[in-house]
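can u pls check wat happens w/ glycylglycylglycine
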Amino acid sequence: MGKYKIAAIGGDGIGPEVVESGLKCLDAVAKYIGFELLVERFPWGSDYYRAHGQMMPQNALDILSGFDAIYFGAVGDNEIPDDVTLWGLRLVICQGLGLYANVRPAVMLPGVRSPLREELSNKINWVVVRENSEGEYAGVGGRSHRGFAEEIAIDASVFSRVGVERLQRFAFDLARTRSEKHLTCVTKSNAQRFGMVLWDEIFVQLAQEYPDVRTDKVLVDAATARMVLNPSSLDVIVASNLHGDILSDLAAALVGSLGIAASGNLDPSGNNPSMFEPVHGSAPDIVGAGIANPIAAIWSGAMMCAHLGEKAASSRLMAGLVEVAKANEVLTRDLGGAGSTEDVTKATIDALERDDLDLEGFNRIGS
Ligand code: GGG
């Protein structure tokens, strides 16, 4: 029987609520399939910061290195500045553990309504591959003359050949596994003449190694319009840290809600534990109300199972989510329903424990 050590970090706001929901579903599917998840919870985040002056302990990365995967909730607090919380937790983990590939699928679930017309939304089946270790989030820059009229602030984007190439290669490898085998490189290389041009050049070079993958390039502004107006013209999208973040939020909105957008922060070398988390943030406005949508966290748990090699568990979790979405009886407020976090959790567990569950339920819509 497989045994996996999971570090669970609920983090801030609704993070702990959706992580607990996801852990219940993961526990149920592990029992059903027959493997064990040894979960250790870490109380890191903004409350930890209030008590200790840092978002997580100094040796947090050493601690996390001993796990097979990290299951994360959200970061962000009403009192502590966002740059302090984000850099103190999520970004330190991603950069410190080399989780350079942020994979964010966007697929329409049956029963969920998109703001787009159905004939367009039905075509959405994308994966955004976001660079997760450098670029606009490199953390290079500074401020001087604080408070004076001549104050300046600089954020420098850093693009390295190593960083761009490894991420794009990951995206090509992913695109190759999908039925469309289509990879779109998104940049802003008309305005940003150095780093983004390097992105474009590396993309053209790598494309020669992947003759089976259809490629194209588009500027980020045009990409947003294309996602809305011509969704079927996209499959896998590879983009820088900032662009990937923005595009995947748009993708999430187009498939119905940020509450269903899942992600994996991967170290493709396997040397470090990868981290799985909903794309959404801490949503302080609904903390404790019991109405946070746990689908993104459960979906991220399914991605974690696949990453750990438990493919049957991953398919079962996803098939369970498809059933819950299709039934449209307990969906949460962000999806137009009146269900609670607990309702969705329970319905997902009931579905995934069914012996007659349609296991191809998700594969038919999302590959
Ligand atoms: N679960 C994702 C999360 O908590 N995100 C918070 C956030 O503000 N992220 C910004 C970013 O990663 O770019």
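Residues 74-76, 86, 90, 245, 277-281 surround glycylglycylglycine (CB under 6 Å).
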